[in-house]
Amino acid sequence: MFKKRFKFLILMIATTISLGVIMTYVDFYQSRILPCFQVATQNIVSTTTDSTLRVYATCGHKFEKRRPGSCNKHNHVAFLKVHKAGSTTVMNIFLRYAVQNKLNIVLPKRSTGFGFNYLGYEETVLRGNLVPLPKNQTYDILCNHVIYNRTAFRAILPNDTMYIAILREPIRHFISSGIYYYVFDEFSKIYNTTNSSKAISTFLNNSSALNMATTYFHNKMSFDLGLTPSQFENITYIDNYIQELNKDFALVMILEYFDESLVLMKRYLCWDLQDIMYLPLNSIGEVKYPMLTFEDEKNLRKFNFADFQLYEYFQNIFWQKVQAEGPLFFQEVKHFKLIQQKVKHYCNSTLRSNKSYPPLLVPRSTWNNEFFISHSDCKFMSQDELSLMHNLIEDAWGRYNQSLNTKL
């Protein structure tokens, strides 16, 4: 009898606890999970018929979908154009955006001559070297080659300017620079060998013994970002300087993850998908890359210590930013890659043909509003930097001179 009563008592206690847990969960669901889910689903826009969107909406997890048109575009941007890091392609994106949105670009005074496209050739930006603006106007976009300097940049750009840069894996950057600037050919002449890999090994084994300019391949990325050559071997200074750069730059893109970088940039700037479409520019093309040995790479790490520190630090920061975007980020990247391939195919076809191709329609999706890519868009995306810069500088001078004449 006692055992039956004891079992009954245990059953009643268990039932009471279970009901309490269930009621607590129901209350939790109604007050926390359900509202979160409702907010999430309200943010979903219609998708294309062949795609679906999973809703990631859990208590404590911010719904990270950013629908097109849900925020205001950021029009004040400084892009640090780092040499041989895919920066010409990114520059074209910013120039196209600026032209389409009638923004003021920071442009050098000269439109011809050696290095005319630089805002500062191995120096930072100075207002006196720029195409002036009509009265009461401000610069919006900076994206030409120039050495970064916090004070100089802030002296000419609005306070809400977003700073963006791009970096490349240092070994690949060294090889790309060596080929592009014919440095390895020079090595081969100096060391009297036709084997470029052997010439590179000889140089890296004793880099200080060679009396030649090393501007384009000695910590060049760090130099573009404002690190002075006198500090190239100062470990403490380099670490502190990188920390300061991290405070200034909202995003440092990584060339090896170019599309991921562009989608992240699009989100940070609240731009549209059409704003980041591109055609690759200024790439070396099909060439035979020299092979570096393990010893070569170890010596290169010493020679370009600052660049390795810079890249490894910001690559880590980059993936932290990607992770913070949530699981839908990679769905958007996948979608962008698909559209990018269609745009590339269309542009290649229309640019090679004399026929009049109708604009390419990109339908509305979760990640973009409907938009068109035209033949003229393709021409702009494929135009070489120097001719494009010449035209933009001449146009900017025309607007400035017209503003003076209007006052008269």
UniProtKB/TrEMBL annotation:
Places the protein is found: Golgi apparatus membrane
Protein name per Swiss-Prot or TrEMBL: Galactose-3-O-sulfotransferase
GO molecular function, one term: galactosylceramide sulfotransferase activity
Alphabetical list of Pfam families matching this protein: Gal-3-0_sulfotr (PF06990)
Superkingdom, natural source: Eukaryota
Family annotation (InterPro entries): Gal-3-0_sulfotransfrase, P-loop_NTPase
Presence of the UniProt keyword Translocase in the record: no
PANTHER family on file: GALACTOSE-3-O-SULFOTRANSFERASE, PUTATIVE-RELATED
Example of a GO biological process term: glycolipid biosynthetic process
Keyword Secreted: no
